[in-house]
From TrEMBL:
It comes from Florenciella parvula. InterPro entries: ABC_transporter-like_ATP-bd, ABC_transporter-like_CS, P-loop_NTPase, Type_1_exporter. GO terms for molecular function: ATP binding; ATP hydrolysis activity; ATPase-coupled lipid transmembrane transporter activity. This is ABC transporter domain-containing protein. Pfam families: ABC_tran. Residues 2-203 form the ABC transporter domain. It comes from the Eukaryota. Gene3D superfamilies: P-loop containing nucleotide triphosphate hydrolases (3.40.50.300).
Length: 208
């Protein structure tokens, strides 16, 4: 989804909103699943990274309890975390760094990458991403988007973003304004239509 507040959109997959409607994830009606089973299907990245006071390693590992150090390090590398790609000793020291209360010891970009690494480690059947590249510079954001595109080929992905260029590989884009669907289609279709999506994308290019 692009162009609208994320709360109502994310609410769709977290709540049950009527006995006459159904939402299917991996062929399963969510109404037939327990809350715990439903949550287990999703890898979630919110706009504000949810971190607790512990090491980077533990914050990433929370995505998949019982993960090995090798799995956590691999997820950190996928998320472009600094020093994660260095030698074993340097990477181990970096992953042992304390995040601080609500990630206070990390920059905004580092916080977001830890949250992304956690989601990648879990690698759920469905990714729910709310502005996943917030706080990241353009180069890193593009690298991460490419990584996500590759990683989620076997998963369903719902991305809520104002960064319209991140949607180039989306199967379907729903462009909303004030909660109403303005346009829908894939990236090329919306560009060729030269409607509101195209206008906003061009305006953002001029601003950058």
């Amino acid at each position: 989804w692009g162009g609208v507040g994320w709360v109502a959109r994310r609410h769709t997959v977290h709540t049950r909103f009527g006995s006459t409607r159904s939402i299917y994830v991996n062929g399963q009606d969510i109404y037939s699943l327990s809350a715990e089973s439903l949550r287990s299907l999703f890898s979630v990245v919110t706009q504000d990274a949810q971190l607790f006071r512990d090491s980077i390693r533990e914050n990433i590992g929370y995505g998949k309890m019982g993960s090995s150090d090798e799995e956590i390090l691999h997820a950190a590398k996928l998320a472009e975390l600094e020093l994660a790609a260095e030698g074993t000793a340097q990477a181990d020291m970096y992953l042992g760094k304390d995040c601080g209360e609500k990630g206070a010891h990390l920059s905004g970009g580092q916080q977001q990458r830890v949250a992304l690494a956690r989601a990648m480690l879990k690698n759920g059947l469905c990714y729910l991403l709310d502005e996943p590249t917030t706080g990241l510079d353009g180069v890193v954001a593009r690298q991460l988007q490419d990584t996500f595109d590759e990683l989620t080929k076997a998963s369903s992905t719902i991305m809520i973003t104002h960064h319209l260029e991140d949607l180039k590989n989306a199967d379907q884009i729903i462009y909303l304004d004030q909660g109403k669907i303005i346009e829908h289609g894939n990236f090329d279709e919306l560009i060729n239509a030269k409607g509101e999506f195209y206008t906003q994308l061009e305006a953002r290019k001029r601003e950058s």
